[in-house]
Amino acid sequence: MRRLVPLALLSGLYGCSALVSGPAYSQPGHELPVPIMLTGLDHTTRALDGAWQFHLGDNVGWASPALDDSGWEPMLAGKPWEAQGHYGYTGFAWYRRRLALPSGEIKDANLALYVPGIDSAYEVYWNGALVGGNGRVPPNPSWYVVFSGAQELSDPQPSEAILLGTPQSGVLAIRVWKAPIVLFSYPFEGGLVIIPRVGTAEAVAALKDADRYQWLRDSQFSLAVILMTTVAGILALLLWLRNRGRTMLLCLAIVLLYPAAGFCLVNVPGMINFRVGYGLTGPVIGIYSAALWFLLLDLLGLDQNEQLVRWTKIFAAIEVGSDLADGALQLFDWSTGHAQLLLIGDVAFTIPPVFLELWPIVLVLFAFRKRLDAARWMLAITALLSATTQATQDITSMGDRWTHINLRSYLNVSLITVVGTGVDASTVVSTLMLVAIVLVAWRYSVEQSQRQSSLEQEFRSAQELQQVLIPEALPALPGYAVTSAYRPAQEVGGDFFQLIPLPEDNALLVIGDVSGKGLRAAMAVALIVGAIRSTVEMTQDPAAMLAALNRRLYGRLRGGFATCLVLRLDAHGLCMMANAGHLPPFLNGVEVPLPPALPLGLTADAVYEPVELRMTATGCLTLYTDGLLEAKNAAGELFGFDRIAEFLSSPRSAQQVLDAARQFGQDDDITVLTLTLAQHGAVNA
Length: 685
What we know:
With about 675 residues, the chain is of the alpha+beta class. It folds into 3 domains: about 5-215, Sandwich (Jelly Rolls), CATH 2.60.120; about 220-450; about 470-685, PPM-type phosphatase domain (Phosphatase 2c, domain 1, 4-Layer Sandwich). Strands 1, 3, 4, 5, 7, 8 and 10 form a 7-stranded mixed sheet that branches. Strands 20-19-22-23-14-24 form a 6-stranded mixed sheet. Strands 15-16-17-18-21 form a 5-stranded antiparallel sheet. A hairpin with a 2-residue loop joins strand 19 and strand 20. Helix 9 packs across helix 12 (about 425-470). Mean pLDDT is about 85; it is low at about 1-30, about 150-155 and about 680-685.
């Protein structure tokens, strides 16, 4: 294979050079072929087989029935000109053939021509008049896929029924243009690759319908697979649109919709012109390949292998990027010259993606090291076979034109027959792989749903636990009116507060925030609240409590930390507090200064200082967590200290403060506590 690439480049340049020079014309002296006698055409058609007069080059005057074409060379119809002495030639050439129609042979009917396939675009002239064609010859050419002698005749052809008009004898001239050679051009192309037929318009229309019916009949199996995978792909796409976070569903949709996209690009006769189809085929294959790789990572349980995922991302970028660059070559019109540059670019941009088709084999080999269930074993084996078959086809077909080593024909041999349609090895393994993908994806979705249900149950349990740890109704606090409000950003949060009555009408008020969110933070809250309750039995001094909590939590928060503010209150407004990295409270809208201190759990020997505060009857102390400060609106603005100070300049309940933050835009857990020295007893809420 290392020798194949330079051989392809050199041979491609040699073949494309024929576009400029062309082979030498044959010498005059050939006898004109005997005109084809059109007899018995009332209900049938006549094959225009045998030798036609053929000439390389282009001159619209060659359409004239009066032209002396005796010096032209003979060229058999039904066989490409590359197989008849003009290998590598691209550009214009003309075919001419004389038809003799006995007088009165066709009654009350028009004469028509059936052209099942000419490579690449053509115009048909009857007695010097342009009567039809397929595609568009240069300038601004447009043409469709035509499978040459390297392919079976059952493959689709962009067939045309061209009306010749009133039955008469005459000269049929066909102006043919062959597009530049690309990397995957077959070994022999160009010209009348299938024999045209002539007959009445009714007979030709019936022949065309019969050919289309045969094509549909031969495509039954492929069309059935495409229909089923397309329906499944649309369902997967709709499910992904409902849950954008599940990229597996998007990859599944792309993989399942790929057969329909590929079929439309290359297999539907005359549907998409060659430049568009060839330009889109590479990017479509690249996107499909990348989606298949990531789908295999998910379904085979390889997504936890960081190195494998990283290399898959790198190769996916190379695959898609190379295919996009290759497709971009079709944005330029290479028919006017420099066709060899098209071939060089096509080779350069196609070789990396083709060899990367082997990457699924690597992924599957990694999967074989894991314990797989039966469905995943089926997926692994069919993916291995499919990748091997496809890569072998594509890698070896790159050299077909220059080495004439045609392994593709062996791989395309029908293994089984389904509803009268031959199915080859590649189709069998690809279909089995799609079935396995759907089966494993369904089981994967069921497993994910079960995990989601289990996770939701865990969250419900955590919520119940948090409701116990963070009480909705506070105990009575003599001498104070207390309000509280708590709102987690998710099902459970990392904020906590505790109001613990002490002897002699004293009380401890603790508020804090654990780093992180969700279930892990909630479990840390449970640990901290338990530690607070046990620490209170040993000491009620705020600074000593924080030091004891810090020692207990150090090394137990798995790299996290917790901020905490502890207040000890008496019934007359005296407040002793100590802070461990928490936000200072506000007193009547003014921030209470506190000495800096490390949060809990970062170092074992942290020191915390006590601060004394005397509250008055007109004072309102507001404690909060950073979710209030970090509330963010749609414009990305934070609630911030200034808004908090302005909002708290007049007395507010905890719920009013929380509602204001939620309306602004909650982004994190929010906890708010307010304390007001009551003149006539305690009021708690």
